[in-house]
Each structure stands twice: as structure tokens, then as C-alpha cells.
């Protein structure tokens, strides 16, 4: 592994596709394999921050300060199961506050420079939109993992995301690419879910991960306890799925 962290953004402008769940649990699975991982919470809702038992309302320094005031990202990091660069509600105002800045799309990329040797991986949880926060994440990233709910409507969002990605490649980050598409909230009992995966595979071939993240109540229970599913229910099916996914991603895309 090179001394510089590999940056992976988790993006899908549709909400409710288990993006935060995936960012956190895959990070913990990587940490179990001995990797140093930072999760950067770029979503003003702060769900990733909260799911590690941190209250975004009481965070003194958050990603807002990092992006808008160029505070060192180290000041926004709290150590939990993994390290978390915390979100706060004022992050919602970051896009407006940054809009006059020159090079505003690269603020996150610049912030990472101070810590790129402290970690093997930096995972970015993005908000459910294709605004400036997500563009910052995609500009800073080497790879993008796209969690997709197994239903037709959530797939349409993939097209928009691909368009945004090609715009970012053209103007900001020529090397960013999709690492893989992750079927989430998979309900094995429905024909619809199986058909949705077939459509995904027809369109994206081997970019669709072999791992499937099945629907389970554990995903709702774990964050309430301020922990990952891997810690909350280490032997459960959800934890197993994320450990499998970790092997897939760490295997350099070998499917």
C-alpha cells in the first residue's frame, strides 16, 4: 500500500439507499482487516457522526469549519470504532458559504493533504444530492462506490450520477472512476428485487459487486446504540455481508 490514503466516496443522489450504513460498516470491516480508516461525514444530516454515538449539535469543530474556514481537518476528527471527521447541521450552509471561494470544488481535497499519510483509506459519506458537497467528495476521491436500492426508480439516479462523474472527470478529477455498484436493501423474497439486480447487471456488468446487502432490522438498531452492525451483531448476516464486500473491494475489484 502506498503511503497516501486511497480515497473512496460513497455517492448516490437518491436518499435512503443505505449509503451511510455502507460507509460506516465497510470502514469497520476494513479496520478489522488491520487498515487505518477515516470516515469523513459530508452530510449535513450527520447520520454517520450520530451512528458512532457523537451528537453533531455538540461538535465544536466540524467539516463546516474545515471547508469554509480552512480549519485543519485534524480538529474535526473524533476517535470511535473508526476515526470520524464529524458533520454538523451548519454544514447545510457550507455550499452557500463556499460559493464565492476560488477553487471551492477542491476544498476537501486540500483538507486531506494534511492527513493523507495517517490513513490507508479515507471513506466519504456524501449528502443525497449532487451539490457542491458531493462535488467536493468526487473531486477528492480516487474511486466511487454507489449503493443502489434494488428497485427500478433508484436506478435512474445512476444515470445522473454518471453524468456528474463525467463532468468531474472533464473539469476537476480526470482519474475518478466507479469502483463498484452495491445492491442494498435487497429483499430476497421479491421478484422485483431480483429483476432489479438483473437490470443492473445487464447495464453495468462486472462493476456490480457480487455482495448483496440484505434488508435487516439490525441496520436500524445499531446506530441507535452508537455502533456499527459489525460490533452490534458481529455474527449476523449484515456483518457478514460487509466483511464479504471488504474482501471484494480490497481484492482490487476482482469479482
Can you tag this structure with a few keywords?
255 residues; alpha/beta; Rossmann fold; 7-stranded mixed β-sheet; 11 helices; globular
Report how far the terminal alpha carbons are from each other: 20 Å
- Strands across the major sheet, in which order? 3-4-2-5-1-6-7
State the fourth-level CATH superfamily: P-loop containing nucleotide triphosphate hydrolases
CATH topology tier name = Rossmann fold
Count of strand segments = 7
Poorly predicted runs: none
Shape: globular
Number of helices: 11
Strand content range: 5-15%
| Radius of gyration using CA atoms only | 17 Å
CATH class: Alpha Beta
Largest sheet: 7 strands, mixed
Number of domain modules = 1
Mean pLDDT: 92
Oligomer: single chain
In CATH, the architecture is 3-Layer(aba) Sandwich
Q: What structural class should be given to the helix and strand makeup? A: alpha/beta
The percent range for helix content is 40-55%
Elements, N to C (H/E): EHEHHEEHHEHEHEHHHH
Amino acid at each position: 500500500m502506498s503511503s497516501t490514503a486511497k480515497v473512496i466516496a460513497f455517492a448516490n443522489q437518491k436518499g435512503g439507499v443505505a449509503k451511510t450504513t455502507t460507509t460506516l460498516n465497510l470502514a469497520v470491516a476494513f479496520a478489522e482487516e488491520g487498515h487505518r480508516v477515516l470516515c469523513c461525514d459530508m452530510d449535513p444530516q450527520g447520520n454517520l457522526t450520530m451512528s458512532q454515538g457523537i451528537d453533531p449539535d455538540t461538535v465544536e469543530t466540524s467539516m463546516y469549519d474545515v471547508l469554509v474556514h480552512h480549519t485543519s481537518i485534524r480538529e474535526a476528527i473524533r476517535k470511535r470504532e473508526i476515526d470520524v471527521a464529524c458533520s454538523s447541521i451548519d454544514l447545510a450552509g457550507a455550499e452557500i458559504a463556499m460559493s464565492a471561494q476560488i477553487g471551492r470544488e477542491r476544498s476537501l481535497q486540500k483538507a486531506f493533504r494534511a492527513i493523507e499519510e495517517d490513513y490507508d483509506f479515507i471513506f466519504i459519506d456524501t449528502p443525497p444530492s449532487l451539490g457542491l458537497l458531493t462535488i467536493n467528495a468526487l473531486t477528492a476521491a480516487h474511486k466511487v462506490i454507489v449503493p443502489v436500492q434494488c428497485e427500478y426508480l433508484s436506478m435512474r439516479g445512476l444515470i445522473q450520477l454518471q453524468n456528474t462523474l463525467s463532468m468531474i472527470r472533464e473539469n476537476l478529477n480526470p482519474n475518478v472512476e466507479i469502483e463498484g455498484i452495491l445492491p442494498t436493501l435487497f429483499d430476497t423474497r421479491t421478484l422485483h428485487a431480483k429483476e432489479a439486480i438483473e437490470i443492473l447487471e445487464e447495464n453495468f456488468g462486472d462493476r456490480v459487486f457480487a455482495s448483496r446487502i440484505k434488508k435487516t432490522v439490525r441496520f436500524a438498531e445499531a446506530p441507535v446504540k452508537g455502533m456499527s452492525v459489525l460490533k452490534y451483531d458481529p455474527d449476523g448476516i449484515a456483518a457478514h455481508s460487509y466483511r464479504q464486500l471488504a474482501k471484494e473491494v480490497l481484492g482490487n475489484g476482482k469479482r
